[in-house]
Amino acid sequence: MKKKTTKGRKKIEIKKIEETNSRQVTFSKRRTGLFKKASELCVLTGAQVAVLVNSPGGRVFAFGHPNVDNLVDRYLKSNSGQNSGAGVTSAVTHYCPLSVPTKEFNQHYAEVSRELEAEKRRREMMIPAGNGGVPWFDEAVDGLPVEELEQYLWSLVELKKKVMTRADELMMINKSPVVLGGFNGVEMGFSGGQTVVNGGGFVFQYGGGEFGRF
Fold first, then answer.
1. Domain that holds residue 178
2. 94 and 30 belong to one structural domain
3. pLDDT digit string (tens) for 83-103?
4. Which helix (H) or strand (E) is 183 found in, with range?
5. What region holds the MADS-box domain (predicted)?
């Protein structure tokens, strides 16, 4: 039997990813890897490490041992004009290794990993894949596992927030009630400062009332 040959691992060109969804997924994945490497450095060598990451969307993520704030303050003080040249030496000389909470790092890594997987699932749900162009909210949910149903619910809630925000904007502009045609038999009405979404056992009320009944 002839052995199947492959091209092997392809080297990824390091350049900015233009596609928004791919860029967000890559950011989450690489950030997880960066924090994991930083935690391993702490565990293996007892080093004190601080990592700050500012996402393309403006969110700041931080990882540090023993504390990000303390390490940043130490760095800023060591590079201030008052003690330039002596601060870095002092920081290194008086460094006392602390016991690294390995369990805490592992828990943090597990949380970040779950966050990454959740982002991947959300992205997959938002992008139709071989469904003939049928919107994701019109696809059948029968047989979906609990985790996918939770992601489906989360996506519906996010969609509802966007629709409500846009409808409120239109209502402020027109200063009259706005009624939008629903999807999948769902109707959305905006009146008297309240927003109601009703259809198929799916009920939301905004502006003082129940939120999210399925």
1. 136-206
2. yes
3. 554 444 344 333 333 444 556
4. none
5. 7-67
Report the alpha-carbon distance of residue 61 to residue 204 in Å, rounded.
33
Contact criterion met (CB below 8 Å) for 158 and 166: no
Same domain, 118 and 142: no
What's 41's domain CATH number? Answer: 3.40.1810.10
Question: Is the distance from CB of 201 to CB of 214 less than 8 angstroms?
Answer: yes
Average pLDDT, the chain: 66
**211 located within any domain:** no
Measured distance CA(93)–CA(87) in Å, rounded: 10
Q: Looking at the predicted structure, is the pLDDT value of residue 76 above 70?
A: yes
What does the alpha-carbon distance between residue 214 and residue 205 come to, in Å, rounded to a whole number? Answer: 12
Looking at the fold, whether 197 and 145 belong to one and the same domain comes out as: yes
pLDDT digits (tens, 9 = 90+) for 101-156: 556 666 666 777 777 777 777 666 665 555 555 555 556 666 667 777 777 777 77
- Placement of tokens 């060591």 in the chain: 78
Phi-psi region of 85 (alpha: psi -120 to 50; beta: other; left: phi over 0): left
Helix 102-126 to helix 146-174 angle (10° resolution) is: 60
Write out pLDDT tens, residues 197-212: 444 444 444 444 444 4
Instruction: Please tell me the pTM assigned to this model.
Output: 0.36
Q: Identify whether residues 176 and 101 lie together within a single domain.
A: no
In a domain, 9, yes or no: no
β-strand pairing of 187-191 with 194-199: antiparallel
